[in-house]
Amino acid sequence: MKRLIIVLVLFALPLLSFAQEGLVPCGGPGQPDCTFCHVWNLLDNVVKFLIQFAFAAGAIGIVVGGFFIMTAGGSESRVTKGREIITTAVVGVLIVLVAWVVLNSFFQIIAKGVEGWNPRFWNEIQCSTANSGPVSLPTPAPTPGPGSAPLPAPAPGSGTLSSTDARAQLQQAGISVNKSECPSGVAYQAVAGGCTSLQGVRASTIAGATTLKRDCNCSVAVTGGTELGHAQGVDSHATGAKLDFKRNAALDGYIESTYERLPGKRIDGATVYRAPNGSTFAKEHDHWDVKGWEGTIPQR
Questions:
Q1: What is the pTM of this model?
Q2: How far apart are alpha carbons 87 and 174 in whole angstroms?
């Protein structure tokens, strides 16, 4: 019996640590102010607590059931009782694990198609520890290395490009565009097979893509431009300030080994890297979401 008590205490330790730290990740002494982002952290904490509780309860049930069986002394009723306890414990743990999978799948479904949100695991989202709320990008320090030269400011009257000129410049740099231009006024989601527009893209954005191709010396393919269907904003796809690049091993390796990884993650769970010239690269599930080509750090 003494050994049984020791085992129960050991399995209860994770629950005691959770009780000490608290489930709510914000708003308390020494904690950041609560934002919408912290809802996901709270949900993650609750689920982790339930999983740890389920495992602790399951382990306790298995130990208790085993104790009944080991001390049955030929009593069929005690053996049956022990088996029932073990079965209930195992089933309870399986239910909690299945519930986690269902919950993760649910959030992937509701987030599908939302600009900038391509989650694999919702519980990986990290919020800022600053009182101001979401993670902010620190002011870049001048660092020598690939891409460190400031991008040239577009000449007067050449701030944006036509699709023809933009595609010609990309082709000359060895950069491909995955799809043809979208019909005017039509969102890319409404086009069978999709489309990619570059009409009205900023000249500095194309210059930044060219610099990336030159420094990386790897395959670079544009998969998103100014087409309708993206989120609006000052520094967005809609204003020609952003491009999406298809991920591949060489490009991933170059960005992750050359650029600075920023602390935390974007609110959608994407890891963000910053080039010396100030442009930011958000690693999404199948592409890099890039902005800041004009040497400024836009709001995330």
A1: 0.49
A2: 62
